[in-house]
């Protein structure tokens, strides 16, 4: 399986992916799910992929040469696109091309055409943009209200992203948040695994040297794993336990007067009478 996250902030972009794929309990392999397209001082783009590995690998290869008709002008590719929107359109066309080539064959063998992509970056003077591309090749864009996208096993790592991230979050904190999100996923789902790939891109740089491959010996990630689990337990243990009964004197009582509570007690009392 897979877990990938892409984050768009005022300060830049953060991308993270795991590298585990599996086709059964004894068929576990490692494949990189992140690819960087960089031309310094011109464009910087990152692609994350999830789903059927054969589909995502084919999309990557076709994306390098895929062209969109541009009327009388030169066809659009990811390397000459003047906007990230046009580059995302090229990616969508590559996904549809793979579907045309392989979709029916996959269906004949009882397999669905399943693939999704996070694609983001910056081209020239245009603002940074981040897209989520679906199996049909259509896509949506991140906004200030929704500043991150996830693909793959997203549910375990989503709560920390929801609680921490805003467009104003500094890049260093967002990278830390992505690592905590990944650790939560690794803890709860064995189909997601190390090593991890992490890219941090600073706005308007059109290149990045903040690229890391993280394995189980990485000192910072080991610190995150150990301290996050320990701090969670400390916070949990510091919270008051719920108190029951009429004599409960907790500062934050569990049971308070409410119409729904009174109705529930009435039903309970009537049930006792019937019994």
CATH class: Alpha Beta
Unreliable spans: none
| Structural class by helix and strand composition | alpha+beta
Secondary structure: number of strands: 12
Q: Name the helicity range.
A: 25-40%
For CATH, the homologous superfamily is named as: Aminohydrolase, N-terminal nucleophile (Ntn) domain
Q: Ends: how far apart?
A: 51 Å
Mean pLDDT: 92
Q: Which band does the percent of strand residues land in?
A: 15-25%
General description of the model:
- With 275 residues, this protein is of the alpha+beta class.
- The protein has one domain: Aminohydrolase, N-terminal nucleophile (Ntn) domain (Glutamine Phosphoribosylpyrophosphate, subunit 1, domain 1), CATH 3.60.20.
- It is 35% helix and 24% strand.
- Strands 10-1-2-11-12 form a 5-stranded antiparallel sheet, with helices on one face. The protein has a 5-stranded antiparallel sheet with strand order 5-6-7-8-9, with helices on one face. A two-stranded antiparallel ribbon has the order 3-4.
- β3 and β4 form a beta hairpin.
- The chain is globular, with a radius of gyration of 24 Å.
- The model has no long low-confidence stretch (mean pLDDT 92).
Write a brief structural summary:
With 275 residues, the protein is an alpha+beta fold. It has helices at 53-63, 84-108, 158-164, 171-188, 219-238, 259-274; strands spanning 3-8, 12-17, 20-22, 28-30, 34-39, 43-51, 115-123, 129-133, 139-141, 148-152, 196-202, 210-214.
